[in-house]
Amino acid sequence: MGLKQEPGMLEQPPAKASWLARASNRFRKGGKLQPFRLLRQDIHNLRLRYVSDWTVFNQLVVASAVYVFFTNILPGITFANDLFVLTGESWGTIEVVFSTGLCGLIFSLFSAQPLTILGVTGPFSVLAENMYKLCTENFHVPFLPVMAWSLIHSAWMHYLLAIFNAHDSTMQYVTNFSADIFSLLNSVIYFHKASLELKRNHDNVPFDAFLYSIIGAFGTCLLAIFLSTALDWKPLFGRIIRMGLAEYAAAISIIFFIGVPYMGELANLEHERLSIQKTFRPTSPNRDTFFVKFWEVPLEWVFISIIPGAIITVLFYFDHEISSIICTVERYGVRKPGGYAWDIVLLGTTTALCGILGIPPANGLLPQAPLHSESLRHWVEVDADDSDSDSPLTTHSSPSPSSSPSSTTLSSPNITTTTPPKQKKLIPRVHEQRYSPFLQSALILCFISPPFQHLLGFTPTSVLAGLFMYMGYQSLSVNPILPRFFELLSPPSELPPLPNQEVSRWAVHGYTLTQIVLTGIIFWVTLTVAAPGFPVIIIILVPVRLWIMNRIWGRETLRFVDGWACRPGKPEDSEEEKAARREGEGVLEGGRDAGDGGVSESERAGDGDVDVDVERGLARTSSGVKNGGGVREKQS
Q1: Under a CB-based contact definition with an 8 Å cutoff, are residues 382 and 427 in contact?
Q2: pLDDT (average), residues 114-134
Q3: For a Cys-Cys bond, which of 273, 331, 396, 403 suits 625, CB 3.0-4.6 Å?
Q4: How high is the pLDDT of residue 254?
């Protein structure tokens, strides 16, 4: 009676209620964890873009399909040879080719982002090796049924990630800082794989054959690089021949150096060639069909398999999402909406399917996914004031010969002012379609048949080493870290001016060195037993970039070198800039034709008749302008 309540005693229940309210709001309509929010949006986007994905077909699409076919199947067979040894002959060439073709075909038909290329990856090979050892040496349980249950568990975990919008809580905060490191890492990995192939040749063949393997490897890479510059050979050959040489450079080089070892005295050397299967049946002698009786395991292993299933989920989720992000970054000018959540559902489905079939699962590949986008990139000339284009690269005027933009004539008592011609600019675009992933996947699937398997057996492993080098070169040549590294080696007087005085040259160099050092650390991790977890390290870099690096580098410096990887803008944008961008996006969305899946008229025109020199001549530059009959590059 008469006891007074302290004010603090009245505050605790509302605080608790407020916490519960905040938590529940996340699951309500519009909240980050609202079930199926991103899935509904992705399915809507898929319906809008699907028809237009089948309306673009040209020679660049065919060339891209051929290029991606070689860069996908040949490295895949290398992983198959590793898996054959690491999994006790449970998996081999036929399983890897079957998985790559089947999963790629499913994604080319049903995914929301068909630019992403799928295949069996190195980190999963390491994980499969560890699982095989645990199953056979420690627990004495069959490997394939345990793997099947792990992949089935991984499927429903993928579904949960998509249902509760995991992309918004993770990948939305990825910046180019992490994406560029991941891209550089893959370049280093492919150069490293080339050296491993040459080392394997050194161990397995006589010295004279090894010397030729060095010539074959570097010859494959250098010939492909040389032919890829064919568009600059004017006036040599005709335009059609130059275009064909440039677009099929890798394929021509590979086929040429597959044939060279059969010429003259080279045919007497003991060349090491890809090991293949000549029958359509599982590699393991204990299996007759592509089906795993996954129920024939002890009951406890059905639940224990949840643990490796969770590891596979983390690996596949981050690997696939980062692959999708890197192949749609700003430099490719991708315009159609994607669908990360829907693709994760599709990835979970193909993962479970592979487990039941007894084949290794496929997921997003690096650098094949961004190389696919690179091979489809072309340049479109648009008006400089086109609101539906990317930020301008370089603009130029094209005044008529008889007048200047500011000239006037007194042809009558009235003064007539000539209308200045519109300024033009070149913007990058990618042919966003489904034909190239469909064709390359269908071609790969053909190679599960014995006659095509026999053809693969003619390929020397030295050609594979050369292809690895060429893929590393292709990936490295478009990485923004490379030009900034060259700036480190250049005298300040030779460098272009910075955008403003608040951007420090030394800070930019420090940022670049940080990316290179972190790439080296992550590459070292990929050589250890912790290799399957390296995508997690990439994700750890996201909070490091957002919460730590902004205390080391200035705001303007970070705005100069970095930006969001999968959405417009930069982390350091002011509130006014964010509001202006949201307003501009709203106007842009309102002006688009919904029937084209958000594809503007200027983009649709860009997918049609594009001047060949503009289309391919700037494939390796960051900016450029059309000048007369050719292209003038501007160094950034």
Answers
A1: yes
A2: 87
A3: 396
A4: 93
Residue 307 corresponds to which tokens in the numbers above? 């643990």
Instruction: Identify the sign of the CA torsion 407, 412, 414, 416.
Output: negative
Average pLDDT for 137-163 = 94
CA distance 550 to 543: 11
Q: How far is CA 193 from CA 464, 531, 587, in A?
A: 9, 15, 48
CB-based contact 434:108 (threshold 8 Å)? yes
Distance CA 240, CA 234 (A): 12
- Cα–Cα distance between 576 and 303 in angstroms, integer? 52
Nearest by Cα to 39 from 151, 150, 158: 158
Q: Give the pLDDT band (50/70/90) at residue 442.
A: very high
Is the pLDDT at 586 greater than 70, yes or no?
no
CB 80 within 8 A of CB 93: yes
Element (DSSP H or E) covering residue 624: strand 624-627
Residue 426's DSSP bridge partners are 381
- Phi-psi category of 483—alpha, beta or left, where left has phi over 0 and alpha has psi -120 to 50? alpha
pTM: 0.78
% of the chain with per-residue pLDDT over 70 = 82
Query: At 188, is the secondary structure helix, strand, or coil?
Result: helix
| Beta-ladder partners of 378 | 429
* pLDDT tens-digit readout, 64-113: 999 999 989 988 887 787 788 788 889 988 999 999 999 999 999 999 99
CA distance linking residue 231 with residue 240, whole number of Å:
10
Query: CA torsion sign, 124 to 444 to 454 to 449?
Result: positive
Residue 335: C-alpha distances to residues 44, 62, 118, 331 (Å):
16, 21, 21, 11
Q: Is 597 left (phi over 0), alpha (psi -120 to 50) or beta?
A: left
* Tokens found for residue 547: 């919460």
pLDDT of residue 24: 73
C-alpha dist (Å) from residue 571 to 252, 555, 586: 44, 9, 20
Residue 631, pLDDT > 50, answer no
Kindly state the DSSP code that residue 265 receives in the 8-state scheme: G
Reported as a pLDDT band with limits 50, 70 and 90, residue 627 is very low
Task: Using the structure block, give the residue that is written with the tokens 């301008």.
Answer: 392
Nearest to 220 by CA among 262, 266, 258, 246: 258
Q: Would the pLDDT of 193 be above 60? A: yes
**How long, in residues, is the chain?**
636
Question: Burial level of 492, CB count in 10 A (0-12/13-18/19+)?
Answer: exposed
End-to-end CA distance of the chain: 80
How does 604-623 read in b/e, with b if 16+ C-beta sit within 10 Å?
Answer: eebbeebbbbbbbbbbebbb
Which tokens belong to 284?
Answer: 């393991």
- Estimate to the nearest angstrom the gap between the alpha carbon of 422 and the chain centroid: 36
What does the alpha-carbon distance between residue 255 and residue 249 come to, in Å, rounded to a whole number?
A: 10
Structure confidence at residue 328 as a pLDDT band (50, 70, 90): confident
Residue 257, pLDDT > 70, answer: yes
Look at phi and psi of residue 73 and say left if phi exceeds 0, alpha if psi is from -120 to 50, else beta: alpha
Report the pLDDT value the prediction gives residue 616, as an integer from 0 to 100.
37
Query: What is the pLDDT, as a whole number, of residue 585?
Result: 61
Confidence (pLDDT) at 610: 38
Half-sphere exposure of 218 (CA within 13 A, CB side): 5
- Residue 603 contacts residue 429 (beta carbons within 8 Å): yes
